[in-house]
Amino acid sequence: MLLRGSRAAGPWGRLPPSWLLFLLAACAARASEITFELPDNAKQCFYEEIAQGTKCTLEFQVITGGHYDVDCRLEDPDGIVLYKEMKKQYDSFTFTASRNGTYKFCFSNEFSTFTHKTVYFDFQVGEDPPLFPSENRVTALTQMESACVSIHEALKSVIDYQTHFRLREAQGRSRAEDLNTRVAYWSIGEAIILLVVSIGQVFLLKSFFSDKRTTTTRVGS
Fold first, then answer.
1. Residue ranges of domains in the chain
2. How far is the C-alpha of 81 from the C-alpha of 75, rounded, in Å?
3. Do residues 2 and 23 lie in contact, with contact meaning Cβ atoms separated by under 8 Å?
4. What is the DSSP letter of 6?
5. Are the beta carbons of 124 and 32 closer than 8 angstroms?
6. InterPro entries recorded for this chain (predicted)?
7. What pLDDT band is residue 138 in, cutting at 50, 70 and 90?
8. Which pLDDT tens digit goes with each residue over 25-47?
9. Which positions ≥6 away from 120 have C-beta within 8 Å?
10. What is the predicted pLDDT for the residue at 162?
11. Under 8 Å CB-to-CB from 45, ≥6 apart: which residues?
């Protein structure tokens, strides 16, 4: 924390209160994004303690592996299924917690036998607090405070777009690498087949022009 009049504050102590609130709100924001590997025939679960009445959003996307699909399941503390989808590439689900407790959401790749997946998800619990709470305020927002709010909203949009394009770039790179591997294997196979056919043709043509000596047996008189 920064104390007013403290020398340790340095240049931050000279900032106006509105900028201090903006910086504190930016620092208080926490990310809940995870990218993890999901092996074949495997299931991965995550748990989150949520208070009643809290609005939550679960977003996920399969980045690499197979047909880019995965099973997703969300349960409340009583085990009631709130969300369940099979073989989804990406999706988003928003709900409001009906009671206090630990909520569980799982990603399953048990239907896949050989391929593992890379899964990204973002689980948002609650909403970001406003930069300038309306309670205990007797004046309207100043021009600088309004600018801070606009910048804060713009930065959140930029972060969302960056995440979206980063996931698309990772998925596109994975598809390109997979296609390159298939093309390389196909080229090697064609080269081997061409070599075998060429050698076979050489031996076949050689057999056409080779001398076939016939032996005759004379019966004695």
1. 33-127, 141-206
2. 4
3. no
4. -
5. yes
6. Emp24-like (IPR015720), GOLD_dom (IPR009038), GOLD_dom_sf (IPR036598)
7. low
8. 444 434 478 889 999 899 999 99
9. 33, 34, 35, 60, 61, 62, 63, 167
10. 84
11. 104, 105, 106, 107
Question: What pTM, to 2 d.p., does this model score?
Answer: 0.62
Task: Quote the pLDDT of residue 183.
Answer: 92
* CA distances in angstroms from 97 to 77, 104, 117, 124, listed in the order given: 10, 12, 29, 12
Three-class SS state of 161: helix
CB-based burial, 138-177: b 16+ in 10 Å, e otherwise: eeeeeeebeebbeebeeeeeeeeeebeeebeebbeebeee
Query: What is the b/e burial string over 75-100, where b = at least 16 CB atoms within 10 angstroms of the residue's CB?
Result: bbeeeeebeeeeeeebeebebebeee
84: part of which helix (H) or strand (E)?
strand 81-88
Which residue has tokens 């690499």? Answer: 64
At residue 12, the pLDDT reads: 37
User: Which pLDDT belongs to residue 7?
Assistant: 33
